[in-house]
Amino acid sequence: MNEIPRPSGRPADALAERLAVELTRAVVRAEKGPGGTLDRRELARRLSVSPSSLYAYLNGTTLPGTGVFDALLTALGVTGPEAGRLATLRDEVDAARRLRPGTARRSPGTPGVPRQLPLSHPVFVGRDAELARLDAVRTPPGDSVPGRAGVAVVEGTAGVGKTALALHWAHRTQDHFPDGQLYVDLRGFGDDAIMDPGEALHGFLQALGVTPGAVPADVTVASGLLRTLLVGRRVLLVLDNARSADQVRPLLPTDAGSVAVVTSRNRLDGLVIREGARRIALDVLPRYAARSLLERQMGAERIAQEQRAADELVDLCARLPLALSVAAARTAAAPAGSVAALVRELRRARAPLDLFGVQDADVDLRSVFHGSYALLPAPAARLFRLLGCHPGPEIDATACAGLVGDMEPPVALLDVLTAAHLVRQHTPGRYTLHDLLRLYAVELLDRGAPQERRDATERLLRHCLDTARLADHHLEPWRPAPGGTPERTGAQPWIDDHASATDWFESELSTLQALIAQAAASPGLESYAWRLADSCAVHLRRSGRRAQRAAVHALARDAAARAGHRAAHATATRRLADALSRLGRTGEALDLLYATLRACHGLGDPEGVREARLSLVRVHTSCGEPRRAMPHARLALALAERTGDPVALADGLTSVAQQWERLGEHAVALDHARRALDLYTRLGHLDGQAGILIGMGRAEQGLGRPAAAIGHYEVSLGLDRALGDRFREAHALEHLGDAHAALGRSGDAHALWEEALTLFEELHHPDAEPVRAKLGTAADYAPVSASSQLSP
Fold first, then answer.
1. Are 474 and 498 in contact (CB under 8 A)?
2. Which of 33, 277, 669, 770 is the most exposed place for a label (fewest CB within 10 A)?
3. Which of 491, 467, 471 shows the shortest CA–CA distance to 401?
C-alpha cells in the first residue's frame, strides 16, 4: 500500500484530505476483501444518510458527526487501534475547523508569537554536562525524525535546581525556536491544587491564536488541536513541576522541530519508556560549583575573607542550590553580614531548617520538602521518617528492613522514595539522602510519637548487631561465638565467607561507629554499643584502623560505665588498652590493664584475668621489655592449662614463646612455638598460625638458619593476606626481607622492605621507621627490632 502523502496547505484542509484518503481506503478494502459485497447505496441507507452525503464524507468536503463516523467505521470493519487513530484524526479536523480565520499560522517574529518564558535565575553555575544533554535533544531540522519531537525530563530532589536549569537552557536556545516558547507551571507539588492538563492546554491554545470559545472542552480533542497547530513549527514547551507522565502526555508535541522540556521531582518513567524522553537526573552541585554559587551571590571578596566558613557553609547546605541561595540571601540581610556567623547559627540550632525558612513557601526549604513528602503513600512516608534514625552516610536495603521490621528488604518502598527523589540509589542496593533531607526526616520523627523513634532505633541496632556478629564469625570461624553460631536471615545481606564479611565491614564501618555512639548515648540501649564494638574488633585490628579502633572501644567503655555493667566495662577497658598500645600510648594502656585486672579479680572472672595478662604481655613486648612481659605470659599459660581450653592454651604457649625468643633462648622458644602451631592447626585457627609462624621464623634466624626462617615467613605472609591483616602482612614482609638479607640477597631484601614500608606508611604506623633504617643501610645491614610486630 502506498504511503499517504503528507498534506500541505491549511491545517484543517490538510487533515480533512488525509481523513478522506483513509476512509476511501477502508471502503475499497471492504468492497474488494474476501466475500466483499459492500454496496455504497446500501451503506448510506444503513447509516441513515443520503448517498451524496456519504460521497461528501469520502471526498473530504463534509465531516461526519461522531455518531455517524463511529457507525461508518463499524460498517467498514475498522476496529482496534486503527479505529482509534481515525477517530482522533476526525476530532482534530473538527477542532482545526473551529479556529478563527487567519490564526492557524503566523509568520515567525511577528508580535503574536508566544514568548512565555519566565525570568531565569541571574546566577547559574555548573551543570555543563546536563546542558550538553539538553542541547542533544534539540535535533537539527535536517536530522529530525518524522513524527518525533524532542522530549527531555529533568528530574531531581526538591531544591536541586531543575527549573533553573530548564529556564537557563531555554533562554540560551530560544533563537532556535522562532515560532515561540510556551511555559506552564503544572503545580505538581505544594499546597496549590495540581493543574489539570485541560487547563494547561487551554492556555497554550490561546497563546497560539485559538479564541477561548473555540478551545475544545475535551482534553483529547484539545491535545490533538495543539499537535495540529505545532505541525511545521519550531516551538519550545517548558512543562514545569509535573507530578506524573499522565499530566504531561497531552501537552507533548509530536512534530519534529519542536521540543518539550519537563521538570519533575518524581521519576517519570512512563515518558522515558513510551515517549522515548531523554532522562536528565540532577544531583546536588559539585563542591566547586556550590562554592562558585556562593561567590557569585555574596561576592568573591567576602568569600575570600572567610574561606573556611564558606567551605563549611557549603557542607551545611548539602550543596543544594536552593539552600545555598537562601543562605546567601540571609547573610546579605543580616546586620553583620558574616558567613561565619551563619555557620555558627546553623551548627548550634536545634532546628537548622528554621534558618532556611522564608515567607515565600516556594523557596522555604521545609515547605519545599513537605511538597514531596505529602504525596507519598503511608508505608513509604513511614520509611522516609524512619531513615531519620539511621546515622550513617548511606543505608543498604537490608538495613531498611531492620528499620521497618520486615524480614525482606522493602524494595518497593525504596523505589517509591527513589522515584520521588527523596533518596538516591548510588550503587545497587545502597541508598543515600543529603543532609538537609535527613534533617527533615529527623524533624518528622520528632513531631511524631517518641515510641516510633525508639522502636525503630532498636530494630536497626538489633539488625546491625546480628549482621556484625555474622560477619565477625566469618572472619574468625574457629572462635566459639557467644550464644551459638550466627545464622543468616532473609533481612541480612549475603555474608557467607571471609571476603563477603570483610566487604560488609568496609562498607558499613562508618555507620557502625555512628550507631555505637548513638547507642552509647541512648538510655536503655547502651548494651548495643559494647556488643557492636566487640563484633567490630577483629576487623578494626586487621585493617589497621588504630584511631578508629580506640574511638569505638572508648565509646563502648563509656556506655558500659553508664549502664553499670561491670563485666562489659572490664572487657571494653581491656580492648581500649590494646588499641591505645597500638597508638603508642603505652602508659595509659598499662594503667587501664591493671585496672582491668583488678576488676576481673573482683568479678571472679578467670577468663578476663587471662585476657588481661595477654594484653599486658603485648604492651610490655611493644616497649621492648620481655623480662616484664614473661611473668604475665606464664600466668596466662597457667590459667589456660587449668581450664584445658585449646585456644587459650595455644595463645599462652605463643605468648611464652615470643618472650623466650626476645630473651635469646631460641631453642626453648621454638619448642613452645611448635606446640602452639600444632594446636592452632588442629583448630583451623589461621590467625594464630600466622602469628606463631613469624615467631618461629625469628627463632630460626636467631639460631642462624635464615633459609628455614624464610619458609615460616612465607606461610605467614600467605595467611595474613588471606585474612586481610595488613599490619602483620607488613611485618611478615619486613622479616622475610631480613632473612633474604642474611643470605646475601640484597636485591630481594630491598624489594620486600619497600613493600613493607608502603604498607606501614598506608597505615600511618611508626613501625615504618625501622624499615626506613634498613633501606638506608641495606649494604651493611643489621636487623632492627620492630616495636609491636605481633600485637593484635
1. yes
2. 33
3. 491
pTM exceeds cut of 0.85: no
- pLDDT of 784 reads 44
CB 453 within 8 A of CB 445: yes
- The span from the CA of 656 to the CA of 660, in Å, is 6
Q: Which residues of 260-281 are buried (b: 16+ CB within 10 A; e: fewer)?
A: bbbbbbbbbeebbeebebbebe
How many other CB atoms sit within 10 Å of the CB of residue 330?
16
3-state helix, strand, coil in the chain (%, to 5): 65, 5, 30
**Segment 606-627, tens digit of pLDDT:** 999 999 999 999 999 989 999 9
CA nearest 349: which of 434, 443, 423, 284?
443
Q: Which phi and psi (to 5°) does residue 515 adopt?
A: -65, -40
Strand pairing partners for 185? 240
CB-based burial label for 484 (10 Å; 0-12, 13-18, 19+):
exposed
Whether the predicted pLDDT of 230 surpasses 80: yes
Tell me which long-range contacts 108-115 makes (C-beta under 8 A, separation of at least 24).
108/178, 108/179, 109/178, 112/209, 113/178, 113/179, 113/180, 114/180, 114/181, 114/182, 114/207, 114/208, 114/235, 115/174, 115/180, 115/181
Quickly list DSSP for 299-349. Answer: -HHHHHHTHHHHHHHHHHTTT-HHHHHHHHHHHHHSSS--HHHHHHHHHH-
Q: Which three cell numbers stand for residue 476?
A: 574468625
Q: Please report which helix (H) or strand (E) contains residue 424, including its range.
A: strand 424-427
Distance between CA 299 and CA 332 in Å, rounded? 10
Q: 3-class DSSP state for residue 260?
A: strand
Which residues, at least 6 apart from 257, have a Cβ–Cβ distance to it below 8 Å?
141, 144, 149, 232, 233, 234
Note the helical H segments in 448-497.
450-475
